[in-house]
Specification:
With about 375 residues, the chain is mostly helical. It is about 80% helix and about 0% strand. It contains 14 helices and no strands. The chain has helices at about 1-50, 55-70, 75-110, 125-140, 150-170, 175-200, 200-215, 220-240, 240-250, 250-260, 260-285, 290-300, 305-330, 340-355. Helix 1 (about 1-50) runs parallel beside helix 13 (about 305-330) and helix 4 (about 125-140) crosses helix 5. The chain starts with a helix and ends in an 8-residue tail after the last helix. It is found in: Cell membrane.
């Protein structure tokens, strides 16, 4: 009887220690994400001060708080207009774009089980680029006015995704089928865009080239509201599948035995993430490496639990993108380097470092 009691006490003690260790790890994950959010806030306040108009960090925060609390802060009218109408929308747009690309990169790597998967693996960016080429060279667009290029980029990005997902639904939505279909569509739309470049005049070529480099300069409050509305619908839908993605990491057959339809989840994830990526890309152009690097950073720090990995990838993507944009705007001021170029310049060596320092086995192996 005494041995039974001692054995039961020992087991409960072990469970208690395991529970404490688990709770401590969960707390560390939340703390890390909160720390990155705090870093984004501080980084945003610093980036606002960079530019031709000399603005201090305190003036920047006062200009922002004066909008929330009118009359509570004394702010120079010019400073307030520059901060609120020019610099802050660009930063908020960069945060949303980086968050969306990071999240979509994370879920695409999970469903495709490929460490090189990103929002552009399925050719979404090349489809958007082709839409820009059609609008620039032929003048054909689904919208007019200020949304001439944006409308085409969004439509062709979604059409590209719809074609791949439709093909996968017919042939079976395996990760190999989707990757191969994405590569094929990517090459096709890239070739078509190059054909349009061949016949374009100087002004049309300049327009296509500048859009293809990727930039955050196009953001305004009206466009941010559109992106925020799409995110408010799509991000919770992606988070609902976090447990399914954890199960699918063990393989499609294992997931099926537990009751998770891997093919259906794969198509569901790709439909939602394609909508998010198309919304981001139509405003920013091609911005590479955010959707590739951010999920790897999050996975190395937090592990493979997608309940934490999905939001952490978005937060890290937002911080990397606004940091790269801040460098791009000021490294050779007054010349502004396109954000897409800077993310590639920073992303390539950083990704190589992660690859060399990372663990040998990842969740898809």
């Amino acid at each position: 009887m005494g041995k039974t009691v001692r054995r039961s006490t020992t087991r409960s003690g072990k469970r208690s220690k395991m529970q404490e260790a688990r709770d401590s790890f969960v707390f560390a994950r939340y703390f890390f994400m909160l720390a990155i959010v705090a870093l984004i806030v501080l980084l945003a306040g610093f980036i606002i001060t960079l530019g031709p108009l000399d603005i201090s960090v305190a003036d920047a925060y006062r200009a922002l708080l004066s909008r929330a609390f009118p009359g509570a802060f004394q702010v120079d009218p010019l400073t307030e207009r520059v901060v609120w109408n020019i610099r802050f929308p660009r930063i908020v747009g960069g945060i949303l774009a980086g968050f969306g690309l990071g999240v979509c990169g994370c879920v695409m790597q999970a469903v495709l089980k490929n460490p090189l998967a990103s929002p552009f693996t399925l050719g979404i960016s090349s489809g958007a680029q082709f839409g820009i080429a059609v609008a620039a060279v032929l003048g054909i667009s689904v919208f007019g006015g200020p949304y001439l290029l944006i409308g085409n980029a969004f439509l062709f990005a979604l059409l590209c995704s719809a074609f791949i997902i439709g093909l996968a639904s017919v042939k079976g939505a395996s990760s190999e089928t989707l990757i191969l279909a994405g590569i094929a569509v990517n090459y096709f739309f890239t070739a078509m865009s190059q054909l349009f470049r061949y016949f374009a005049d100087d002004e049309q070529l300049r327009l296509m080239t500048s859009w293809g480099m990727g930039d955050l300069a196009a953001f305004s409050w009206s466009k941010i509201y559109i992106i925020f509305g799409v995110f408010a619908v799509c991000m919770p839908l992606l988070m609902l599948k976090a447990w399914d993605l954890n199960i699918m990491a063990s393989g499609d057959e294992t997931a099926k035995s537990i009751g998770v339809n891997a093919e259906r989840v794969r198509v569901y994830i790709l439909v939602i993430s394609s909508l998010v990526v198309a919304t981001v890309v139509c405003f920013t152009g091609t911005i590479a490496f955010i959707g590739l690097v951010a999920p790897h950073m999050a996975r190395m720090i937090l592990g493979g639990d997608h309940r934490f990995l999905i939001p952490a990838s978005g937060i890290l993507g937002a911080s990397v993108l606004i940091a790269a944009d801040g460098v791009a705007m000021n490294i050779i001021a007054p010349t502004v380097i396109p954000t897409g170029i800077m993310t590639s310049v920073i992303g390539v060596p950083f990704f190589m470092y992660l690859m060399l320092k990372g663990r040998r086995k990842e969740f898809w192996t």
